Amino acid sequence: MLRRVEPGQVILYLWQNHHTVVIGRNQNAWKECRCQELEASGGKLARRLSGGGAVYHDLGNLNFTFLAGRDVYDVERQLQVILDAVRSVGIEAEFSGRNDLEVSGRKFSGNAFYLERQAAFHHGTVMVNCDFTKLSRFLQVSSAKMAAKGVESLRARVINLAELNPTLTVAAVQQRIVEHFAAAYSNFQGEIPLLPQGGEFDRLVAKYSSWQWRYGQTPQFAVTFETRFPWGGIELALNLRQGRICEAKIFSDAMDADLVEAMATSLLGVPFTQSAMAQAVADVATDSNSAASIVSDVSDWISCLVL
Q1: Residue 159 in contact with residue 108, Cβ under 8 Å?
Q2: Using one digit for the tens of pLDDT, what is the confidence trace for 235-274?
Q3: Is 196 helix (H, G, I), strand (E, B) or coil?
Q4: Cα of 256 vs its chain's centroid, Å
Q5: How far, in Å, CA of 143 to CA of 154, rounded?
Q6: 31/34 Cα distance (integer angstroms)
Q7: Three-state DSSP class for 130?
Q8: Which residues pair with 65 in a beta bridge?
Q9: Taking Cα atoms as reference points, which of 117, 124, 79, 112 lies closest to residue 2?
Q10: SS3 (DSSP) at 134
Q11: Which of 53, 5, 3, 50 is nearest to 27 (CA)?
């Protein structure tokens, strides 16, 4: 759908997963999810193309994706559709932090983003009546992340909309989102048919369902360092050969997935010294102030590592 969206076009795609943990593009599956326990219970692990953190999906959760040409891609406008829909059922929701929709400081929606030159998408969850027992059971959230949020547990951090409006159903939320999407985009044309299967569709299904994409090869790195910034956590994993970095991986729930990968790539072949590594990361090209700030944070952190 992303590759077929036209300039000036915005598509709203509503969808659900049953009993699934979804992780961000640069996350370590084994650290974010109790993978063996999930699969033993009949669950699935998925890895999305965008950055951000791990989430749990079941049929009490509704997912949305806005796909748009870059000329009309507007995260604030898109988020307003979701906020207006939720507010229309008597719940005062608001945008908070880097990517969350919340009610009274408790999250019911996490959002993530992916941009290409001609088109982009923005997607997120709407937890209406999600099974938080399973959410807590299968997600492994670091204590550092919980401390940064100022809460003691994942369960204390999230909320179902049905807790605030017991009559609410997923179908009702879906209807409200569609109504407010139609109101926000005056040239709304109604439903469009899904893309036919076959060809490129089958190729993408094979790629994103593969073990390699979902779990990936996570080698036994010789050296690892870990910390957390306001914009997300980071784990730097390195293998060395003759004093130089021959393998580098950065695991992170940072929203800018491409930037995370660029910083890891910059370290290949670099001497294993604070100054050389910090300079390599500092030299990563950025196109925004927020990205430059992330690069600066990571470079400064590396310059202080005890090797």
Answers
A1: yes
A2: 999 999 999 999 999 999 999 999 999 999 999 999 999 9
A3: coil
A4: 9
A5: 10
A6: 8
A7: coil
A8: 13, 123
A9: 117
A10: helix
A11: 53
d(CA 177, CA 64): 9
Amino acid at 208: Y
Q: Is the dihedral of CA 180, 184, 188, 193 positive or negative?
A: negative
First to last CA, the chain: 46
pLDDT digits (tens, 9 = 90+) for 162-207: 999 999 999 999 999 999 999 999 888 888 877 667 888 889 999 9
Q: Which amino acid is at 129?
A: N
The residues pairing with 223 across neighbouring beta strands, listed in sequence order, are: 238
pLDDT tens digits for 43-98? 999 999 999 999 999 999 999 999 999 999 999 999 999 999 999 999 999 998 77
Cα distance between residue 307 and residue 294, in whole Å: 22
| DSSP symbols for 36-49 | HHHHHTT-EEEE-S
Strand order in the sheet with 55-57: 44-47, 20-23, 55-57
This prediction has a pTM of 0.85
The C-alpha angle 78, 82, 88, rounded to 5 degrees, equals 135
Q: Cα dihedral angle (253, 254, 260, 263), rounded to 10 degrees?
A: -110
Q: How far is CA 280 from CA 158, 247, 252, 295, 299, in A?
A: 38, 14, 18, 10, 8
Evaluated on CA atoms 21, 22, 23, 29, the torsion sign reads positive
Distance CA 52, CA 47 (A): 11
Chain centroid to CA 269: 30
Cβ atoms of residues 69 and 8 within 8 Å: yes
Contact criterion met (CB below 8 Å) for 121 and 114: yes
**Full strand arrangement of the beta sheet holding 119-127:** 10-15, 61-69, 119-127, 106-115, 100-103, 94-96
The whole-angstrom separation of Cα 11 and Cα 121 is 9
Instruction: Report the alpha-carbon distance of residue 147 to residue 241 in Å, rounded.
Output: 36
